[in-house]
Input
Amino acid sequence: MSADTPGNGQTPVLELKDLSKSFGGLHAVRGVTFRIMPGDRKAIIGPNGAGKTTLFNLITGIFPASSGQVLLFGKDVTGWQSHRRTALGMARTFQITSLFPRLTVLDNVLLAIKGLRSSKFVMWRFLSSYRDVYDKAHQLLEQAAFTDRANTEVRYLSHGEQRQLEIVLGLASDPKILLLDEPAAGLSSGESVEMTEFLMRLDPKLAILLIEHDMDVVFDLAHTISVLHFGEVLETGKPEQIKNSQKVQEIYLGTG
Output
C-alpha cells in the first residue's frame, strides 16, 4: 500500500494536508501533502536545508504550522502539543542521543516506561515491586534482541547499539507511528547495516517515517520515498523510481 494513496477503508495513521511553515520571509515547508497507512515505511530525503527536520517538528507539535493540517488517526491535531500527540500513538527519536550513560540498558528502558505513566517511582519501594513495568521493559528488550545487554551500562555500548536503544525507548509508549530522525547518523557502514536489520525486525503493523541521509538504509527499508527540496515535495515514489529519477539525480544527488 502506498503511503500517498487512499487505503481500502482504513484510516491513515498520519495525514498531512497542504502543511506549511514560514519563519518571517523564509518558507521552510511549503504545502506538503501525504498520508501514511498502518505498516507503511516512508522516508523523507533531501539535501541539507530542504526542510526535513522542520517538517518533523511540525508533525510532532514542536513548531506550530503556519497553514495546513496534521491528522493523526483521522483526528486534527494541528494545534495539539507534543505530549498529546504521543498519548495518541506517535513517538519520535532525535539525531542527538539522550540516554543515561552510567545506568544500565534495563534502567534506561524502565525510566522511559515510568516517564510515560501517571504514577512515579516511590523512593522507599523496591524497583522490583513494579512488576508490570519490569515485564514491559523485558518485553521491549526481547523484541529488539537486546536481552543479553540488559545489565550493561549504556556507556559501554557501541554508538550503533546506543542508537538502537534510543529506538527501543521510543517504543515504550506503544506507538502506532514512529518518526526516526536520521537513525544511521554517525554510524559506520557495518553499524548502518545492523540498524537496518534492527528496524526491519520491528512490528510490521508499526508505521515508520524516517529522515535519513544514508541511502542504503533508505532504499532497503522504505516502501515509498518523498524527496524534499526547498520545503516542497519534489517527487514521491517507490525506491526504484526515486533511484532512477533524472530530476532527483540532478537536484539531490548532484549528478546533473
